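Honest question from a wet-lab person: if I give you the sequences of every part of a complex, can you actually get the arrangement of the whole thing, not just the pieces? Trying it with mine:
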Amino acid sequence: MARAAREFEVLDAHMRVLNRRNLLRIDWALPFLVVVLAALGWLTLYSAARSAEDTFYVRQVAFFCAGAALALCIVCIDYRFLIWLSPFMYVVIIGMLVAVQYFGARGGGSERWLELGPIRVQPSELSKLVLVYSLTWYFTLLGERIRRLHWFLLAFAIAAVPMVLIIRQPNLGTAACLGPVLLVMLYVAGCRWWHMGLVILVGLSFVPWLWWQVYEFDPNLDAEARAAHDAAAEFYELKYYQKMRIYTFLNPEADPRGSAWQTIQSMITVGSGGLSGKGYLQGTQTRLNYLPEHHTDFIFSLYAEERGFLGVVVIAGVYLAFLLRGLQFARDCPEMHGTLLAAGVVTILAFHIFVNIAITVGSLPVTGIPLPFMSYGGSFYMTTMMCVGVLLNVPMRRRMFVNE
Amino acid sequence: MLSRKEPKRYEGVEKRVQWVALALAVAFAWLLQQFWQLQIERLHEFQEMAETNRVRNERLKSDRGVIYGRHDVILADNRASTDIVFVPGEALLEKRREICMTLEELLNVNGEALYAEVEKNKRAPFTQITVKRDVSRRDAVRIEEMRYKLDGVFAVVHPQRRYIYGETAGQILGYMGEISQDELDRWRGYHLGDLVGKMGLERMYEHLLHGEDGYAVVTKYAWGRPQFLTDRRGVPRIAARDSHGHLLTEEAPRKEPNPGQPLYLTLDIDLQREAERLLRGQVGAITVLEAETGAVLAIASSPGYDPSVFVTRGLSHERLKLLEAARPNPMRNRCYVEHYPPGSVFKALLAAAALEEGVIDKNSTFFCPGFYQIDGKGRRWHCHKRSGHGHMSVVPALALSCDVFFYNVGRKLGIERIHKWCDRLGLGVLTGIDLPGEIPGLIPNPEWKQQVMKDAPVWDRKWFEGDTVNVSIGQGSAATTPLQNAVLIASIMNGGRRVRPYLNRAIGPALSEPLLSDETLAVVTEGLYECVGRDEPGARGTGRRAHIPGMTIIGKTGSAQIMALEHHKKYETEEDIPYAFRDHAWFIAGVLDREPRIAVSVLIEHGHHGSTAAAPVAKEIIEFFYAQEAAREEQAPVTLARQGGR
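Yes, you can. This is the full assembly:
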């Protein structure tokens, strides 16, 4: 027994770097589901291409390959090493988020990109994973102390710093992603029930604030008045386009050709699909340009139009299987690091999947949330594949602990 | 191994992870339920919305019906108006500017502004940009010649209303204008921006002239509108690419438009033009009816306007306001949207009514001392002849227009019976002509006075005998339209049958039962004939200036007072009386011994005397009409035969 333990100790030392035997121990179900989802994503993207010039589905394949390589790199590094690094990563990411405020490239009406030589980095994308690592580091450090209120609240402070910086970019979608990550990880880390209840109550008390923001909202301002509105807004107030989105979500008929146009057209696209869909490459709504952002945020509408309800059931099943497999890793991991890491990463992906799909059926207001494996976009594909890499890492190290 | 600083897991962490998994499963189930609702339960609703998204019914406008006059002369038709349009998407990017400059040279438009427009539409490069509207034939030919260097420049032909006789009959034909919101709500088959009849016959027969639009079903992209081009005959076709450059296909067989129905009028455009010429420089109205049928041959009013001003540059509200504010108003046809006191013309009706009621007979006489007093005392109503006519019976009273005779007759008849006969013979009531905006005029009676004077003291509300006396010679509050007076004379010529005037030949005549007995008609006709006079010198009838040798003409003059006679005495000569205070001059006439027999009603506003201002006009009208008829008969009897057949 002691000999075996020593053997594992040696093994463990080697595990921090690339190791063939480790790779053989990789989980096969999760990569399989990932390939299925990626393949469905390519097919849908191909259908989204309206003309020969639209070649983003080719680039998406490249993104997948790059992402897979990145995932492989992550798989090779012991996750505990990254957790050990996470306080530094946290500081760096905060620095990048601040830098983006001053040197960021503009994209989609907000500063999001940071140019680092040839690479463009989106710190807000990275911050999701970094937060998961940081919180894991923090919670494992705390252990049982998480049941004390002040340690519990400190977790919020850790999450709040990147969140506020991202909101100020402004990038509401990404910021909103950090909230569920924090809550789920707190829960898994073992916080008290009534602490959680308190937080949810405080969260609900923000609803009146949101209401107040949109209460005297005038949706018919011209460009100049909008700029003036944004300039006059206090730091705790929402920008015009954010108010607009909430407003149109609450009053979809108010502006059928404006922001609500996207929701309505998406609902038509989904709804007209029926049970079995219009057939692959036969989606009229997309072909005639009615569906906005049909290759990015609204790609799921296109899928639902062409494959119908049955197709939706299939892909939802695959997504759910993928996420549950991730949670299975979390449950079966014998130590806290892996459990928290897997739970956090699954929450990131689940949030994106759920919110994106809920937006396509008009159940949530339009926020730029991409769909993992399907939406076109390199940066987010990288994040997704990194998440996959982190998830795969968790069960691989499992065997280190079981044989004592 | 866990001793190696690996953090221990607390009890129950597995359960918490499983709860998270359960929450995830519930969330996904909820999502699927949402999809079930949209894709299965509300499928038809969304399918329909997707379908309306997918195709567009593109309208193919129908041609408006042509308006013909008497003898099938074209009065209003549609000419081909050519617009030059530029579709930048059809030309190379670097050539677009050059094309704009060439167009500047050829069409004298601002090339820079045009290019700015091209730049503005960069995102929708297949949008048609109108270079110049309604170009001349010469310009169109020049564009055609330069085709080889003008890629993307097309001529688009569309029909435009043309009023061939311009101002002539302008008020009758009316004009076209953009459809109003109100009309859009009430009428079916119209769209915003359509041109519809706004006045006159264009308005009245909008439903016939408009026709039925067709449509073509084309693919509809979210951004981009189908563009129309036409071949040289003006037949529309849909351009292969819409404004954003999507290739279009027609998805279903197209429904061709039904052109509007033609409108055949009774209006004799030459007579109308002559009538308008006679009125030029004066304010007045001339109505000519075919006595037997009530067919309107001319219905002229002065001043008039040319409806084309609304066509060529569209209906501008400023222009309309200008026309409407002008005095005298050129927009109103004085024949039926303006009323005047009928004056002595009314005596023809009064004579007929009195004879019919048996109040007088042919030989009843009244003595005219030059004035009339109720029961021999009080206020004096003067005869226009101050010295008096002496003993008068009905025939000379009509011929000489003796006021006192008719004061007596009117009082004997009483206001109620006068009113009744006015109703029957069509004074003070709508004639029913097929033109919009006709007004009824007014013949007063005691109830009417009660009503309008209801705020006045009781003693003013009462109907006085004096009121009856006033009405007896068509004064006081009595007011009739020139058209009504024409109907009156036509009825007398027509054996007492009242006609309903009409312009649309398809409607056909509508005559009442004979309202007057033959004896009455004989007496009244004799009186009116005496008024115009025979072929002998020394005729004294007031209408003698309308006399045409060799023709049997009946007529009645009228001079409707604006001010009391006393007022006119202040001035030495008639020319000194201010224009606005002068009497209106009336003359109604009928020709008995020609085919077709016509009834004429002439009104000259502030023309002093019917006998001098109106009667000569009526004479010229009658002469012109029969001369023209004779000429046509000689020339082309075939046309007449066709006319009869219709």
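Two things worth pointing out. The longest helix of chain B spans residues 13-41. Chain B touches chain A at residues 1-2, 4, 6-10, 12-14, 16-21, 24-25, 27-28, 31-32, 34-36, 38-40, 42-43, 45-47, 49-51, 53-54, 219-223 (CB under 8 Å).
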